[in-house]
Each structure stands twice: as C-alpha cells, then as structure tokens.
Amino acid sequence: MAKKKNTHAAQDWNYSASPESTSHIQLKEKYELFIGGKFVKPSSGKYYKTINPANEQVLAEVAYGNEKDIDSAVKAARKAYNEVWSKMPGKERAKYIYRIARLMQEQSRELAVIESLNSGKTIRESRDIDIPLACNHFFYYAGWADKLEYAYPNRKIEPLGVAGQIIPWNFPVLMAAWKIAPALAAGNTVVLKPAETTPLTALKLAEIIQQSGLPDGVVNIVTGFGDTGAAIVNHNDVNKIAFTGSTNVGKIIQKAIAGTSKKCTLELGGKSANIILEDAPIDQAVEGIINGIFFNQGHVCCAGSRLYVQESVADKVVAKLKHRMSTLIVGDPMDKNTDIGAINSKEQLATIEKYIKIGINEGAEMHQVDCSVPKNGFYCKPTIFTNVAQSSKIAQEEIFGPVLTIQTFRTVDEVIQKANNSPYGLAAGVWTDKGSRIFNLTSKLDAGVIWANTYNKFDPTSPFGGFKESGFGREGGLHGLGGYLKLS
Ligand code: NAI
Ligand code: MG
Predict the structure, then answer these.
(1) What separation in angstroms does the CA of 239 have from each of 188, 213, 321?
(2) Alpha carbon 309 to its chain's center
(3) Cβ atoms 194, 166 nearer than 8 A
(4) What is the 8-class DSSP label of residue 459?
(5) Catalytic residue (choose from 301, 302, 398, 475)
(6) Contacts for 102 with CB less than 8 Å, ≥ 6 apart
(7) 95 CA distance to ligand 1 middle (Å)
(8) How far is residue 179's CA from residue 250's CA, in Å, rounded to a whole number?
(9) SS3 content of the chain, % helix, strand, coil (to 5)
(10) What DSSP string runs through 346-385?
(11) How far apart, in Å, are the Cα atoms of 274 and each of 223, 284, 327, 360?
(12) Which end of the chain is more exposed for a tag (fewer CB within 10 A), N or C?
C-alpha cells in the first residue's frame, strides 16, 4: 500500500496552478428579466442570490420572475411572432441567428468563464466543449432557416408560434442554444427559463441577443425557480413546451398540458449502460469509462453511469480504471488542469451523498479516489461501486454525480437484457473490436443515442433524445427542427 502514492501521476508531475483569469468579465450586481428586448424589473420586486458552487461566494443577484412576468414575456413573444418574426423570410431570420453565433464566438472567453464560475464545471470543459458547441448549434440552425422546404419537401410548413423552454443547470448555455436556435430557425418566438442555480450565461446570452439587433420580443429570458417554469407550462398562449430536466418534473409537465393543444418535447433523466466486451481496446475503453461518468462531474443526462464489463476482462478493466482515477485532478474549476470541478449545488451534493450511503448499505463495494478537495464549495470524490446487484437502487436510479456502478456479464444476450432492464432509455456505449457486434448490440439496446468505441460525443447535426422515462422528441439535426414545426 505504501507504494500506491508513487503511482499517483498528479504527485509525480506536480502540476503548478494554472488559474484562468476572471479580470476580463464584468458581472453586474443585479440582473433583471429580459422581456421585449429590454431588461425589466421583476413585478414582485424579488431577487435571489446566485453563487459560485466552487467556493460558495455570491456572484450576483438575479430577478425572480413570477406568473405576471411570464405573462408579459409571452405577450411580448406573441407580438413579435405576429408582427415580425412569422412574416420575415427565412434568409433574413438566418442572418440574425448567424449574428448571434458570431457574437457568442467573439465573447466566448467571457461566456466560458461565467459558465464555470456559476456552474462549477471546469474551465477546460466550458472553454473547449460547452461554448463552442453552443455556437455551433446557432451556426447549424441558421443554415436551415431558409431551407425548410428542402428539409420537408412537398409539405406545408408552419412554425408553431410561441415556444416555452425550460432548461437545467448541467449545461446552462448549451441547453439554451439547443432550445433557442432551432425554435428561431423554424420561425417561432421564445420564452426561456434558465435553471435557478445557473442563470448567468443565459443572461449574458440575453445581452448578446440585444447586441445582435434581434427584433424585440423574439427571445425573452425570465429567470426564476420551479414556479416560474410552471407559469410557462400553464400559460394558455404558449404553443410548445420544450423541457430538459428531471423525470419528475417531466411528468408534472405532461399532466399539466394533457388535453391542451400544446406540443411538447421532454429530455429527461437517464441511467445509461456503457458496455465493454472482451475484445475491446481496453485502454481506450478505460478513457471512455472515465469520460462517460466523470465528464461534467457526472451531471450529464446521458452519463455512462452503469458499467457492464465482460467477465473475462473485468479484473483488468477495474484495475486500470482505478489507476486512471488516481490521476484525476479534483478541485478548482477555474484551474486549467482540473478534471473534475464542483458539484452544482448543495442540494445535488446531498443527493449524491445519499446514494453513496445507499450503495454501501446495499452491500456494494465502494472505491473512492484518495484526494483532497477544497474546504469551501461542493465537491465529491470520483467514486465507483463493484459487487452491485442489478436490482440495487444505485444501479437503477439516476444519481447525477461522479458515481459509477460496475457489473459483469458473460454473454452478449445477458448484457442486452441487463442494459435494457432500466426505466430509462437515453444513451449507451459499446466497446468492441468487431463491427458486427456493434451492429448487433446497437439494434437491440433501448436507447436513443448509442456510441461505439467512444462516449459523450455531441454534434449539432446529430439528433439526441430518449425512450421510456428518458422522455420523447429529438433535439439536434433535422429532427430537432421538426419539434418546432407544424407539418401538413
Ligand atoms: P428539475 O427538473 O427540478 O429542474 C430543471 C428545470 O425545471 C429548472 O429550470 C427548474 O426551475 C424547472 N422546474 C422545476 N419544477 C418545475 C415545474 N413544476 N414546472 C416547470 N418547470 C420546473 O431538476 P433538479 O431539481 O434541479 O434536479 C433533480 C434531479 O433531476 C437531478 O438530481 C437529476 O437526477 C435530474 N436532472 C436531470 C437533468 C437532465 O439533463 N436530464 C438536468 C437536471 C436534473
Ligand atoms: Mg427540482
């Protein structure tokens, strides 16, 4: 055991601190609601504090929008839809969407820093993944705005009207882009509510939208809590609800809009299987396991949180995985070397810790990286469980943190059964040397997205979405446009 420390790469190489500077961003003390192209005070006069989960310091005060504010936002969106946006030719709409993409690119460093400060995700991730992907979504959908008749030949194509969009905290600005870009390209106007813990990049995006000259009211951004979201869902002049978040709230939304003409897409939770066959390239697979579960602290709806390893290679995979985990750098999200940043909120950390306790009580064997984490802020050490029963809670329920369950299997049929034995059906990963095995597995797994010999790869041209309790509808690609159009 004494030797263990010598294999710790972080100690061998002794990385120096490499903090990203925050001097180039200017946060306001107080943020208002973005309605009708202007920043306006919330009708209740209420604000709440938004913090940096990496150190619990207050970053700014943010308006708490209520039903009245949502009503103003929907009215602004309806007016913009009727008077401007629905009449504007696609090629003119495209120019605005392109302009938003270009302005986001120009201000990408600010966006990345604000995203990491407010969400706890590492600067490396927000800089290299979230912000570029968010820009790409605007670029990609700008390209579709004047080509809808080619996307749907011989069909009558109409926008839906006002889209109400409610997004979560795990990919704050990327989810805003996933929602806003296709809605605008299809000719709809938008009322968007960011998650309560991560409003700041959506508000920065509101500033960018203002700079782009987008007609007033085409995009409205109303910050607040669950009741603010519910006011969007229940507003009778909203034509479409697009939601990403928990399965529980997805169910509430479905009940609320049953019997109305509102269209809906729900992007909910997951418990995705990452499957390693014995002929897989093991070292790459281990990287894929790490990326699958520890990317974004495991706050990923499609996280590869259930690992299935073929029995003949299980010991080898687990040994290599533990070694690789020992090299992960956990801590300050603003340090460019950090692999795993802060958990998004105190509440989410409590949820994760609750599941870790359940796993231990259920008799699974826990292994946690032996590292130190900052004293203030919310952190969770990378954790894996072996000896996990298929029926155990930690293998069935979404934990939404850096916690992996590991099970073994002998035959391909067995792993298909185990992987599909879940209320969710969002994503899966398959690692093998043989194309025929990939085709066999991908055709039998109940998952909306399946990666082969890779994991957590996203692209605006590729549709994303799930089955079963993971929701319905697709975002991204041509499919993502369809959710914002009436086709007849
Ligand atoms: P949540 O589903 O409550 O929050 C997501 C968004 O919905 C937020 O903007 C929130 O303000 C809004 N919201 C909450 N209640 C609402 C209501 N009744 N009507 C309309 N909008 C409402 O998720 P929460 O509580 O932050 O996280 C709980 C669990 O949900 C997590 O532990 C995780 O398992 C899962 N989750 C999954 C996500 C995904 O990407 N699929 C994202 C966030 C959470
Ligand atoms: Mg909630």
Answers:
(1) 10, 25, 47
(2) 26
(3) no
(4) -
(5) 301
(6) none
(7) 33
(8) 16
(9) 45, 20, 40
(10) HHHHHHHHHHHHHHHHTTPEEEE------SSS-----EEE
(11) 36, 13, 21, 22
(12) N
Residue with tokens 């940043």: 341
Dig out the tokens for 335 from the structure.
């340090």
**How many whole angstroms separate alpha carbon 432 and alpha carbon 451?**
11
**Tokens (6 digits) for 444:** 């039998």
Tell me if residue 82 falls in helix, strand or coil: helix
Give the chain's length.
488
* Nearby residues of 16 by Cβ (< 8 Å), 6 or more positions away: none
What's the alpha-carbon Rg for the chain, to the nearest Å?
22
Token couple for 216: 């007033």
How remote is the CA of residue 471 from the centroid of ligand 2, in Å? 16
DSSP labels, 36-70? TTEEE--TT--EEEEEETTTTEEEEEEE---HHHH
Q: Which residues contact 193 (CB under 8 A, 6 or more apart)?
A: 65, 164, 165, 166, 167, 221, 222, 223, 224, 228, 229, 232
pLDDT tens, N- to C-terminus, the chain (488 residues): 444 444 455 555 678 999 999 999 999 999 999 999 999 999 999 999 999 999 999 999 999 999 999 999 999 999 999 999 999 999 999 999 999 999 999 999 999 999 999 999 999 999 999 999 999 999 999 999 999 999 999 999 999 999 999 999 999 999 999 999 999 999 999 999 999 999 999 999 999 999 999 999 999 999 999 999 999 999 999 999 999 999 999 999 999 999 999 999 999 999 999 999 999 999 999 999 999 999 999 999 999 999 999 999 999 999 999 999 999 999 999 999 999 999 999 999 999 999 999 999 999 999 999 999 999 999 999 999 999 999 999 999 999 999 999 999 999 999 999 999 999 999 999 999 999 999 999 999 999 999 999 999 999 999 999 999 999 999 999 999 999 999 99
301 is catalytic: yes
- Pocket test of ligand 1: the residue of 166, 170, 243, 249 to mutate, having most ligand atoms within 8 Å of its CB, is 249
Ligand 1 midpoint to CA 439 (Å): 34
Distance of CA 54 to the CA centre of its chain: 19
Furthest CA-CA distance within the chain: 73
Buried b (16+ CB within 10 A) or exposed e, 110-134: bbbbbbbbbbbbbbbbbbebbbebb
Distance from chain centroid for Cα 377: 21
* Strand ranges inside 201-305, DSSP E: 219-221, 240-244, 263-267, 273-276
3-state secondary structure of 126: helix
b/e map of 305-336 (b: 16 or more CB within 10 Å)? bbbbbbeebbeebbebbeebbbbbbbbbbbbe
302 in contact with ligand 1, CB cutoff 6 A: no
3-state class (DSSP) for residue 426: coil
